[in-house]
Amino acid sequence: MDSRDFYIFGEPIDTKFGKIRFLTYKEYLLNLSELSLISQNVLHLYYMYRKQFEKEKNSKELIEELNQYKKKNLYEIVLGTDYILEAYLKILLLVLDTNEYSDEEFKIVIDAIFSTEEDFMYIRNMIMDMQVLTEDDVSPNEEIQKAIERSRRVKQQSSDKQSFVDIVTSITASTNNSFEDVCNMTVFQVYATYARISAIFNYNTTTLFATVAEKVSIEAWNKHINLFEKKTDTLTQEEFKSQFGGLFDI
Question: What is the pTM of this model?
Answer without folding.
Answer: 0.83
